[in-house]
# Entry
Amino acid sequence: MTTATATKTWKRQDFASDQDVRWCPGCGDYVVLSAVHRTLAAIGRGPHENVFISGIGCSSRFPYYLGTYGFHSVHGRAPAIASGVKVCRPDLSVWIVTGDGDGLSIGANHLLHVLRRNIDVNVLLFNNRIYGLTKGQYSPASEQGKVTKTSPMGSIEQPINPLSFAIASQATFVARTYDADPKHVAAILQRAAQHKGVSFVEIYQNCKIFNDGTFNAVTNRDVRSDRIVFLEHGKPLTFGALGNKGITLNGVDPVVVEFEPGNPPADLLVHDETASVGLSFLLTRLAHPDFPEAMGVFRAVEKPVYEDELHAQIAKARENSKDTSLHALLRRGAETWTIKPPAAEGEAVRGEVESLGDALEEVGPEKDSYIADLDEDEGVPEGVARVLGTELSELTSDSDTVRVSADTPIGQVLEEMRAGDALATVLVCAEDDKIVGIVTERDLLHRIPDGVDLKTAPITIVMTPNPETLEPSDTVAHALNFAGARGYRRVLVVSEEGVTVLTVGDLLDFIRTSAP
Ligand SMILES: Cc1ncc(C[n+]2csc(CCOP(=O)(O)OP(=O)(O)O)c2C)c(N)n1
Ligand code: SF4
# Structure
């Protein structure tokens, strides 16, 4: 519901459009269109204050036939678009027009969310239990056994009951009407429009061409008084041409009872639009032939409205924030992180290798055998395989290393580095000279805990223990991928002669000077 802002009186004609209406003669959609014209005039908001948003289907042609704003949108997506419109322009009266195919098949997910969020829009679901526009396929609302072109042996699916769906989705206003009673349609639409929060109205609508008479057993003039129970808030559920039938409860089950006209039993169920969800749900399950089908407002409760809450949050966030610019938002806090790619596993996928860069990407750490084939690939620069396949034993390194024992204080290591190459790699060795850890300048910058005494704290507290090592027979390609995948800037090559530290710079230098 959005209150009228203008004092002008509107007429039905003000809401008509200049478009030719293209529904089949006798289609129930005409009745609803006329009721909508009447309702909009009665509500008193101008055409410019209403927006009708539809999906795809015969019923979804609705916006063309109204002089309001409109959007004939995407199949099943009217709720998403309407949500956006209402959130941005809460002052507008927003209507969704959908069918049982559009709203309960492809668009059921979107419908669910607009209902549970309680966005203040009015949903009109035209239920003709068929896909009309596409010429008569069965829909999610078609009854079991329904024979159509897509269910030639009869539908084997349980149909969706739109009102059960709406109540289960926590809609705050749920109603049903039928196209054979234009006044009832207009009255229900007006109630829906007045409701603050989401309103869901199922309209039994006859598809003259592909599902003619689907609701006749309930809505035909000569049977309806015995087969429809009209819901009125605060009144007992009675029906019947003679006014002699009613609904009571036996535990949680509804029961039809007959009584002397004018003398109803005291325990008839009294309709309460604000009753528990369970009771509203129960009314949606009343179905012919065991029960009369209910028409009217099943449920109308007040709950906080989505767009109100959202705008309140926005206002609060603005109030609490000194700088509301996007720039400030993006730079707020230090909540960034870096994700290192995991080491490649399994076989490398061979694609087109046209350059040295491509070749490097193609070769995984364990894929040295692939090197042998590289030269055969068309377009691989000659000699690439030779360079990438060179064993690490062939490479030389300019990097300095400092060897220390595990109990060496951090301060002493720093002294040694200062005396030599400040970027030297520190190898922490056990008594048998085996490497037990590695320390880089990055570790010394970032890993020394606050307040630690550098004169006594051992180097082991900042080292990376048991570093992964390579063998002299590993290749340049392997070393580059190994370092790249793990984010290392140097690799340790361990041979019987000792340890060589190769930096990524060493590897690239080798490629630069050897590449064809
Ligand atoms: C993505 C997509 N899928 C399928 C269709 C085909 N299609 C158009 S309307 C429709 C169903 C319409 O049924 P309903 O919502 O009941 O509307 P009616 O035509 O009966 O009023 C379908 C399946 C489409 N247009 N787009
Ligand atoms: S196909 Fe059915 S729903 Fe579509 S316009 Fe014709 S009668 Fe109406």
Q: What stands out?
A: The longest strand covers residues 293-300. The CA atoms of residues 248 and 254 lie 6 Å apart.
